[in-house]
Amino acid sequence: MALSSARKAAMAAVAVAALGGVSFFGASASEAAPGPAGHASSTPAPAPASTVVERSVSARRQAPQVVTRVIGKGRVDGHRWSVALEFHRTLPKGYTLPTLPDGASAPGTSLLCQRMYIGGVRVDHQGGPWSDCQPVTGTNDPAPAGEMGLWGLHDKGLDGTRLMVANPEPDVAYGLITLTNGHQIKAETVTVPGTTYRAWAAPIPDGRTIAAVDQYDSRHHQLTHDTNWH
User: Which of 13, 59, 119, 210 could crosslink 229 through cysteines, CB 3.0-4.6 Å?
Assistant: First the structure.
C-alpha cells in the first residue's frame, strides 16, 4: 500500500490498481586479430566486419532478460526490509499493458517493477505478481524519474512500518529523511546496471512522523525540499 505524489495519480488512472494500496507512483570489447604469420606487427589488424557483427549479435543474445538490483535493505521495528528494482527487457508472459481512457494500450516495450518487502511480506502482493510495476520503453525511459512514495503493508502506508522509495532525477545522489524527533535517515541512489533506472529507499519506523525529505547531488548541494510527508 502506498501514499504517493500527485504525479503518480495520472499513471494510476491507466494502471491496474493493486488491491492492497494506492500507487504514487554492458560493456563491450573487441579483440584485435593477430598480424600475418611470420611478420611482426606493432598495430594489430582489425577484426573482419562479419566478426564484429557476430559479436554484437551474440552480446545482445546474452544480455539478461531480467535484471534485479537491490536498492536498500536492513532491519526496522524488528523486521527485515528490502527494496529492489526489477527490470524486464521485454514484457513478461502474463503481463498485459494498461488501457488508456481512449481504449488504446499504454505504451511500453519493457517492464520496471519495484519489489518491496517488510517482514518477508511483499507490499501490495494482493494485487498479483505485477503490482507496483509500470511499463517503460527500453533501458532509458525518463518517465519514472521524479516519483516518490511512502509504502506500507496496511492502511495505505499511513502508519505501521513503512518504506520511503524515490525514483529520482539523474543528478540526485542521495535522499535525507528528517523525522520530527530530529533523527535523520540517509539513503544512497542506486542504478539498475545497463539502464538509467534508479532509486533510493529508507525505512520509516512505526509511530514516527516525517518532517522533511531532502535530496542532494554528489557535491551535497540540496536539490529538493519536501515537507508534505506525514
Answer: 210
Instruction: Give residue 63's region: left, alpha or beta (phi > 0; psi -120 to 50).
Output: beta
Q: Tell me what pLDDT residue 1 has.
A: 54
Distances in Å between the Cα of 101 and the Cα atoms of 12, 32, 168 are 12, 54, 28
Q: Residue 184 is placed in which grid cell?
A: 535523520
pTM over 0.85: no
Q: Give CA–CA dist 201/135, Å, rounded.
A: 21
Q: What is the pLDDT of residue 64?
A: 86
Which triple of cell numbers denotes residue 108? Answer: 511500453
DSSP annotation of 152: E
Per-residue pLDDT at 225: 97
Residue 181's pLDDT is 96
What secondary structure, in 3-state letters, does 157-216 show?
HCCCCEEEEEECCCCCCEEEEEECCCCEEEEECEECCCCCCEEEEEEECCCCCEEEEEEE
Residues of the chain with pLDDT under 50: 6-42, 57
Provide φ and ψ at 127, rounded to 5°: -85, 5
| DSSP H or E stretch at residue 56 | helix 49-62
